[in-house]
Specification:
- About 40% of the residues lie in helices and about 10% in strands.
- By secondary structure, it is mainly alpha-helical.
- Strands 1-2 form a two-stranded antiparallel sheet.
- Strand 1 and strand 2 form a beta hairpin.
- The model has no long low-confidence stretch (mean pLDDT about 90).
């Protein structure tokens, strides 16, 4: 087991549900005061919040369904080191 599911549920509650559930993103979430509340940016917001809470290296991707036909997958920013 990579992560205790009880811990994961708590992390998801803190990173996703508390800041976003039943909120007007543009008015009630400070992050979206200066960032357009697209599905893509919601995925980035969730990624950034979860990354702060999860053990390093355990977050692989965030998938947000806007509709059955519109799905966003975010895997974080790639860091390319120069040699």
């Amino acid at each position: 087991m990579v992560l205790n599911l009880t811990d994961l549920k708590e992390y998801m509650q803190e990173a996703i549900m508390e800041p976003l559930d039943h909120k007007n993103l543009d008015k009630d979430v400070p992050y979206f005061a200066e960032v357009v509340s697209t599905t893509e940016n919601v995925a980035v917001f969730i990624w950034e919040n979860l990354k702060k809470l999860l053990p390093v290296g355990t977050l692989y991707k965030v998938k947000v369904y806007e509709t059955d036909q519109n799905v966003v997958v975010y895997k974080g920013e790639e860091t390319i080191s120069e040699k």
